[in-house]
Write a structure and sequence with these properties.
The protein is mainly alpha-helical and 122 residues long. Among the domains are: 43 residues; 32 residues. The longest helix has 20 residues.
Length: 122
């Protein structure tokens, strides 16, 4: 559909003012979204306005990391430097094993490797 320059500027003004999004305007006026963006550039050039600032999306925000519980923190505070290093190494080993899909039961010669999931991982 062909629009006059005044109609294009009106569409762009509505998008710039936040009444419509680019996608909503494209659907409503049966336009390609890139055409609406072109109208928006034309509107900004005609009026001398700066580009729109992007609004932050609030729908898919990740949760902040939670602090460890006090009981585990106190446990680490009472450890020596060597014990902390050993605990860190063991945690990293367990993490690597979990990524590979197995856990370890027992120790020494009685160590048993248990798959986390019985299904094939490939």
């Amino acid at each position: 559909m062909k629009y006059t320059k005044e109609q294009r500027l009106d569409i762009a003004k509505r998008v710039y003012d936040g009444e419509l999004t680019v996608e909503e305007a494209a659907v409503k006026y049966e336009l390609n979204p890139s055409s609406v963006k072109g109208y928006l550039r034309l509107y900004r050039a005609e009026t001398g306005l700066p580009p729109r600032t992007h609004r932050k999306k609030t729908g898919n925000v990740t949760q902040p990391a939670r602090a460890p519980k006090d009981s585990s923190l106190k446990e680490y505070e009472s450890m020596s430097k060597e014990e902390l290093i050993d605990a860190l190494v063991m945690a990293r080993i367990n993490e690597a094993r979990l990524k590979k899909g197995y856990s370890v039961k027992g120790s020494g010669v009685e160590k048993e490797y248990l798959p986390i999931d019985s299904g094939n991982t490939k």
